[in-house]
Design goal:
Largest sheet of chain A: 5 strands, antiparallel
Radius of gyration of chain A: 20 Å
Structural class of chain A: alpha+beta
CATH class of the largest domain in chain A: Alpha Beta
Helix content of chain A: 40-55%
Largest interface: A-B, 30 and 29 residues
CATH architecture of the largest domain in chain A: Alpha-Beta Complex
CATH superfamily of the largest domain in chain A: Aminoglycoside phosphotransferase (APH), C-terminal lobe
Oligomer: homodimer
Strand content of chain A: 5-15%
CATH topology of the largest domain in chain A: Aminoglycoside 3'-phosphotransferase, Chain: A, domain 2
Shape of chain A: globular
Distance between the termini of chain A: 40 Å
Number of helices of chain A: 9
Order of helices and strands of chain A: HEEEHEEHHHEEEEHHHH
């Protein structure tokens, strides 16, 4: 939730004049998106409804061609996601108020705050289609938040971890060692969304209508994307793991893209690692809040609980599937 | 800039189902509005674009029928402003997530951050039309932030005023005494917007397209509304008073509703009082920030500077008009 950059009238007008989308009839800062400044734009031409994003410093400018190119590639292969709009100079990634900026089409749909089972099924189906559609995308972006990056994050937080929760430092240290030793290397890989939390998945009439916010997308194991979603979609607010949701998500995924035996066997470890990743980044954001962020840091301990769940199960059968 | 209240999917769906506006296809928290939670709503029926407001505690629930009724009254008399939408039960003011809530039509237009002279002319014309259209509105709401309310605000801040700026306490005290002794009593009165800052006035192609945010509207002297606008629209960012803007605003106003000699003569005092009012409320918000507010308090000293300008001029001729 943030609007970091104020855009002057003249700057906005001049910026929009470079596109074939008519003139601005409304432009409102949107209270979402932690990393960037987002505006809902209505114009009297083109589709009439757009989203304008100014990329703030937390998003590396060098990665923007990957993100913009990926949305365009996926949209061209039938995935419902924001489509970058090209200006008359042919460019979709431009500059506004001194920041990299892009206009994308507005995607109808609402994110669900409390996913129900049918939403998890829709997500599983959509995620598998996204994984297939991403095949052949020519740009590369290694995951910047995977195992080798976790220990430096941990080191930064380690001295204060026990103040946050008793014994947390030792538990994180042990988990890191497990992950560094056991993280799989040869599972099927490709483009993953890497942040398909309920905020970033839209539904219309309970059917998935699209994915947004590709700013963590990268190349990694496809099953790791599923692991992220197991954590983000299948736990209830009270911490209970909802096996029905997990079963529906995984079944719908496999109806489009069946998992190999190796992927299936790796799921608990991937989910445990994914929980560790979000635990570490949340802990870091909690201990070192970003200056100017308008959003309250999220509770790291939610992910400690999830980590322990995946550590303690006997295998992927705990996700409600035959494995 | 604030979204205070999170609305659950189920609550929103049930709320919207009570209106004849179709189903929600998008709902985004808007990063504006200090007092309330605002959402841009797109639906597959009706006008398709709406604004949903949840009224937070800073807006007195008892005043809401006045605000909602006023927007409906003004819209019915040709003023472009958000039109409250009635649910099937006939009510425009309802309840969502435990708060009073209303849906209004979405008003096209953009607010200008740096008004140019033609915007000031458009505002003058529009404000005069608003004042005429408000005639006969049957509800009453006394101004809750006029002279008698200023001293209590001052008393609350007085002990810390000099820490904020040297000599401020004595200067505020002296100004208060002037206002309490000289504030006019018998000027033409009626419905005033009372907060027609550039944020709250929309333009399309540099023509005024409407007024929003009527949550300070009240009964008071019409010329006081002009005085508020002189302060909010006619000073440059560097503090200079732009007499061209003031002249255009006042000339356009008078082409619709001529000012009496008494109103004209009172303008400098009203503008000085208006500056004191915003100086006091800003100082109060600075010294006692609202818990949970996501907006940075505005600089009180901007209004000290404006106050001094109006105190030091020789008469309304300084606003560029024959007086």
């Amino acid at each position: 939730m943030a609007v970091y950059t104020e855009v002057s009238d003249e700057e906005l007008e001049a910026f929009i004049a470079d596109y074939d989308i008519g003139e601005v009839i409304s432009c409102k800062g949107v209270a979402e998106g932690v990393e960037n400044s987002n505006y809902m734009l209505r114009t009297d031409g083109g589709d009439g409804a757009y989203f304008l994003t100014l990329y703030e410093k937390r998003v590396a400018a060098a990665d923007l061609p990957y993100f913009i190119g990926l949305m365009e590639y996926l949209a061209g292969r039938g995935i419902s996601c924001p489509l970058p709009v090209h200006a008359r100079d042919g460019k979709a990634l431009r500059t506004l108020a001194g920041r990299p900026a892009a206009i994308v089409t507005f995607l109808d749909g609402v994110s669900v705050r409390r996913p129900r089972p049918q939403h998890c099924a829709g997500l599983g189906d959509g995620l598998a289609r996204l994984h297939l559609a991403g095949g052949g995308f020519p740009l590369r972006r290694p995951n910047g938040l995977t195992v080798p990056h976790w220990r430096p994050l941990f080191m930064h937080c380690a001295s204060r971890a026990d103040n946050f929760a008793a014994g947390l430092r030792a538990e994180l240290e042990a988990e890191l060692t497990v992950m560094e030793n056991q993280w799989p290397a040869n599972l099927p890989s490709g483009v993953i969304h890497a942040d398909a939390f309920p905020d970033n998945v839209f539904f219309l009439h309970d059917r998935l209508s699209g994915f947004i916010d590709f700013y963590f997308a990268c190349d990694d194991m496809l099953a790791y994307d599923i692991a992220i979603c197991l954590n983000a979609w299948c736990f209830e607010a009270d911490g209970a793991f909802n096996v029905t949701k997990a079963r529906l998500m995984l079944t719908a995924y496999q109806a489009v893209r069946p998992l190999s035996a190796e992927e299936m066997a790796a799921l608990p470890l991937l989910a445990r690692g994914s929980a560790l990743r979000f635990l570490l980044t949340r802990l870091h954001d909690w201990l070192f809040p970003v200056d100017g962020a308008l959003v309250k840091p999220k509770d790291p301990l939610e992910y400690l609980h999830k980590l322990r769940f995946h550590r303690d199960i006997s295998g992927p059968g705990a996700y409600g599937i035959d494995a």
